[in-house]
Amino acid sequence: MYVLGVETSCDETSVSIVKDGKFVLSNVVLSQIEIHKEYGGVVPEIASREHVKGITYVFDKAISEAGINFEDIGLIAVTKGPGLIGSLLIGVNAAKVISLNYNIPIVGVHHIAGHIYANYIDNGMEFPLLALVVSGGHTELILMEEHYDFKKLGETQDDAVGEAYDKVARILGLPYPGGPIVDKKAALGKDTMKFPRPMVDSGDFNFSFSGLKSHVINVHHNMLQRHEDVNIEDFCASFQEAVTDVLVSKTIQAKNMFDVKQVIVAGGVAANSGLRRKMKERITDIPVYFPKMAYCTDNAAMIASAGYFQYLKHQKADDLFLNGQSRLNLEG
What we know:
By secondary structure, this protein is an alpha/beta fold. It folds into two domains: 2-115 and 296-314, ATPase, nucleotide binding domain (Nucleotidyltransferase, domain 5); 127-286, 2-Layer Sandwich (Nucleotidyltransferase, domain 5), CATH 3.30.420.40. It contains ten helices and ten strands. A five-stranded mixed sheet has the order 3-2-1-4-5, with helices on both faces. It has a five-stranded mixed sheet with strand order 8-7-6-9-10, sandwiched between helices. Helix 9 (273-282) links the parallel strand 9 (262-266) and strand 10 (288-289). Helix 8 packs across helix 9. It is globular. The two termini are 26 Å apart.
């Protein structure tokens, strides 16, 4: 089955053609990063307008690169949430137009399910598995006992890990998006500051990064007040070591409790080199998989893959009342 995936949950406009949930024929991503850099973060209204400008182009390019016609498509999978509602509506409505015009069944897909299934494209899945979801808006541990079955074990109680990265980058004077820059700086520094590891031994699988973020900001402020030199590389390395220690430790605790066969990492922060290194160093008894870099950030191939398995499991499509939702429960 050829699945047409559509992703517009934030600031990437993406359309992809994926065969049988795994074989990517095309994956076109139109990024808005350069536009939003000027504002230090994503501006929802601007994001929506850019989606409108680019959506027709990415549809045409994805179909052309895949070498097929719309008539060959067996399913449309579109991100319905969570995300910026204005952005979501552009993708959902464009997908519904294609669905109606060519009489193709359509399914609305949870954005985080897409990030999880980004791993299936290159790595496959063996159940039960544990997924660590880390991005600008999400930090969650998800247990999967079969395809398209999600049980949330724990989540952030405040800031998501990607959000904390961006805020720390901002106080250090680093450009947006902050996560990749902090990661690069951290590789050049040392953990000299020994920041706290919040909730690492809390006895559950929840996370908290707001306190760590505030602590880091206060330390930086006090150093400036005392006219001390701030070693940016060491500062980034110390922050990243604290964050990755928590993420990996919690993942290992869940892995051991639920006796999983595989650990996968999903979301934009899955591209973080420090997290990749530490996961593979500390988990050696079962496979640990990360998506290819192209599938870590938002893209439509992951939505097409997730939509394929959603459709196989439930054997039903959505109707044309399908709509975008800014908040959406993965388990529901």
